Amino acid sequence: MFERVVENWLTKVNERQYQFAFGQVLLSKGYRILHMSSHGPQEQGKDIISIDPTGRPIGFQLKTGNLDLGAFRKIRDEIVELVELPIEFPGVPKNPHHRAVLVTNGRLADTVRSAISGHNQKWLARGFVELELVLFDDLLKDLIELHGRFLPTQLHDVEEFLRLYTFNGRSPLPRKQFSEFIVNNLPLKDSLKSRKGSSRHRKEAVVPSAKELGRNISSTAVLVSYALNAFTSSNNQWALFEGWIMFCAHLLAVAEKFDLPDVCWKETFDIAFLAAKSALKALTHEAVTHEHLIEGDALVDSQVRKARITILVGLMAVHQFISRITGESNELTPHIHRFLKEHRADLWFWGETAVPYLVLLGLYIERMEGSVQAESLWGSLLRAICLRNRYKKESEKSEGLSDPYLEVEDSIAHFHGLDEKPEWERPEYDGHSYCLRALVLMLARRLRRQFLSSSWHEITGVDCSEMFPAPAWTMLLWRSKSGYLKITVPQRPQSWAALLAESQTDDSSQIPARLVSRPEFMAAWITVYAHRLRGDVIQVMEKGLC
Amino acid sequence: MLPDFPKLKSKLRAILNQRMKQTAYGGGIVSRVRRFSVHEGQGFIMQRADRSVGKTEFRERSVEQRLTKDELISLSPKDLIEKVDKMAAEMARQTTKDLFEEMHKVTSETGNVVDGKSRPFSFNLFLEGLRKVDVDFDNLGNLSGMTIVVPPEIGKRIPELLEHWKSDEEYKRRFDEVMAIKREEWRVREGRRKLVN
After folding, report:
1. Do A496 and A377 share a structural domain?
2. Which domain holds residue A231?
3. How far apart are alpha carbons A9 and A515 in whole angstroms?
4. CA of A493: which chain B residue's CA is closest?
5. Which of A6, A36, B17, B27, by CA, is between 20 and 30 Å from A203?
6. How is residue A108 annotated by DSSP?
């Protein structure tokens, strides 16, 4: 049955969408991937640059669907570049000449085969290599082989996969469900306990070998590609971005849990993060070229449009930070600046799930325009939390902003009063906040004593909650069964000197090392994992980004 | 399988669950205590304003109800509701007991306990207790957000006792004295809600 799903998926995706799965196939066969295209100009006909298991450079050109003679003629120049232009990449030798491979998730017409055969003879005569082909059947076979014994076989796992595969692709990513899917396919549950009736995981009774973990990771990366199919079909780049970021986070969790050497997981992580970055870039491009930023049912869109804009500006800030840190070219910068300027008045704070977007936007504004605007933004967030989430008396109406554990959609619904439950079932958000301490410390670090001084009376009306999963790597999971919620009651009075010292304390001991060393990933991750936004997390991220 | 009606049964189950929650948490002292959901972890650590730290592990509370197949077959809607109410009442009892045990533990640690030592509830005992607690006031100086929990037998006597205490000038004077102290303590506390140095 699962083979049919893979086949179905492979017929529906384009080259951008199967590129990441194909990358995993290459890794599983022992190739090293040096470069993967973001499908812009300057690709020299090569979407993937790699070193094959014998150490020879190899370039891949990826195409979509069946190729007849007409289609082949259209791409002939790119194919010529693929074969003839040497690979220009640091560390890649010019000799021997690189291998060249045309990949498509379709089939070739006989006429195209003849044409390629003719070209190959000429290339060989001129000292180049033959063009190699990877077609639909090869891809399908490779994908199935890659999964090996790691395909979901238990009914529950298959059902869960199919639910995601057929999900409404226009909706936000169901993050809890998606995390469960990843956790069920990676060795992230208690790996020292055997589980009844789960043949897939029977080997987890012992700690798996690094090689086995590597295969498991590659297989899951490709499963994630399939599981995101519904969002791929709907061009829902936000969900795709979040899906890949979640996979990356779970992958880091596996690497931390088993303290894996880089060779087992890093290349898969890099490819998955590239997939996330590609989705982010596509989303940013769509947003800056969109005329009115209305999506879906236009009649009621006004009730969510500002949330959409707030998410977009936060993600644009992430995009800019990633581009700067990785040194990637970024032709969208002027459009992003125009967008940020035009929509500064459209920001909305609907609940604590909005905080990461607004914090990241502030960090970007701080870098581009100076600190006043950014601090003003964070200050207004802090004031709003203190006002709405302060302790209420029994007679007062609860109006607390929802906590960051809600899905964004549910959080917006709560703001609009659309989730009214009976009193005894209603969640209470008054009296505490998950992000207040982080905001206080950010402003203290920026020496905003006067502002904090004038706000301290209100700050003391809200307790600061921060979750510390244990061990630290479990903070990369959606939920952790172990660890403590730390509730800090603001001091009365609070010494400014002590607060300043606390804000400058450099302590990353509660954050996984592989996350600390990737600030650009951390910025993307915190938009998805809003419930992990803590004082120490923000400080480490700030330090890495700025 | 035999014919079944899962959609309808799911609705019935939701009604029972709601009634269970309403009975357990919709009334009594538990309904008046601020509560929030903790979504993960095994407990919480509270760092109080005075920087003292308390650690609490989550405790599972459950109520078991055993029904035979014969009972299940013959359950009328009324019987079903009675069973649910009984379970909910037991849940409320356990939760309330936990609440008071935790309060007793914390107040014992901080020395905030007035032990009546079998003395009957009286104005002096009431005033002694009042002296031990922080009392809040609103911006107009009115008493705010204070709840006193007493055993049911004392609760029955409270209206009569209050009448008596209010009519006694000496009691009134002593109560006002304590409240004046409490008001001043509250002002001091409020004054401390600031950034200094």
Report:
1. yes
2. 152-289
3. 32
4. B192
5. A6
6. B
Are A302 and A444 contained in the same domain? yes
* Residues A525/A515, Cβ–Cβ less than 8 Å: yes
pLDDT in tens, A475-524: 999 999 999 999 999 999 999 999 999 999 989 999 999 999 999 999 99
Instruction: Measure the CA–CA gap between A104 and A192, rounded to whole angstroms.
Output: 42
On whether ipTM exceeds 0.90, the answer is no
CB A464 within 8 A of CB A436: yes
Query: Which residues of B are less than 8 Å from A403 in CB distance?
Result: 36-37
Smallest CA–CA separation between B164 and chain A, in Å? 28
Q: Which of A424, A431, A486 sits opposite B47 (nearest CB)?
A: A486
Q: Does pLDDT of B111 surpass 90?
A: no
Say if A501 is an interface residue toward chain B (CB within 8 Å).
Answer: no
- CB-nearest partner of A424 from B22, B41, B49: B22
| A385 and A488 inside one domain | yes
Residues A337 and A480 in one domain: yes
Determine whether the interchain pair B195/A449 forms a contact, defined as Cβ–Cβ distance below 8 Å.
yes
Question: Would you give the DSSP letter of residue A67?
Answer: B
DSSP secondary structure letter of residue B121: P
Final residue in a domain of this structure, among A256, A289, A322:
A289
Cβ separation of A393 and B48 shorter than 8 Å?
no
CATH number of domain containing A142: 3.40.1350.10
- What burial class does residue A132 get, using C-beta atoms within 10 Å of its C-beta: 0-12 exposed, 13-18 middle, 19+ buried? middle
CA angle in degrees (0–180, nearest 5) for A174-A178-A184: 155
| Residue A268 to residue B79: CA distance in whole angstroms | 59
Q: What is the DSSP string of A149-172?
A: GGS--SHHHHHHHHHHHTS-TTSP
Residues of B at the A interface, defined by Cβ within 8 angstroms: 18, 21-22, 24-26, 31-32, 34-49, 51, 55, 138, 144-145, 189-190, 192-197
Q: In chain A, which residues have their Cβ closer than 8 Å to the Cβ of B197? A: 495-497
Residue B31: list chain A partners with CB under 8 A. 423-424
Q: How far is B33 from chain A (nearest CA, A)?
A: 9
pLDDT band at A153 (very low <50, low <70, confident <90, very high): low
Same domain, yes or no, for A9 and A127?
yes
* Residue numbers in A near B48 (CB within 8 A): 489
Which residues on chain B are in Cβ contact (under 8 Å) with A462?
A: none
Residue ranges of the domains in chain B? 45-113, 123-191
Size of interface A-B (CB pairs under 8 A): 112
Same domain, A116 and A159: no
- What is the band of A190 on the pLDDT scale with cuts at 50, 70, 90? low
Q: Which residue of B has its CA nearest to A422?
A: B22
In chain A, which among 208-227 make CB contacts under 8 A with chain B? none
Give the residue from chain B lying closest to A459, CA to CA. Answer: B193
Distances (CA, A) of B95 to B28, B33, B128, B147, B169: 11, 11, 27, 18, 40
Domain boundary among A131, A147, A163: A147
Smallest Cβ–Cβ distance between A482 and the set B22, B24, B42 belongs to: B42
Say yes or no: A48 and A102 in one domain: yes
Assess whether A140 and A34 both reside in one domain.
yes
* Surface-to-core class of residue B136, CB atoms within 10 Å of its CB (0-12 exposed, 13-18 middle, 19+ buried): middle
* HEC string for A319-371: HHHHHHHHCCCCCCHHHHHHHHHHCHHHCCCCCHHHHHHHHHHHHHHHHHHCH
Contact B42 A484 (CB under 8 A): yes
Q: Taking 70 as the threshold, does the pLDDT of residue A39 lie above it? A: no
Closest CA to A322 of A372, A284, A377: A284
pLDDT in tens, A263-320: 899 999 999 999 999 999 999 999 999 989 999 999 989 999 999 999 999 999 999 9
pTM: 0.88
* Confidence category of residue A205, pLDDT binned at 50, 70, 90: very low
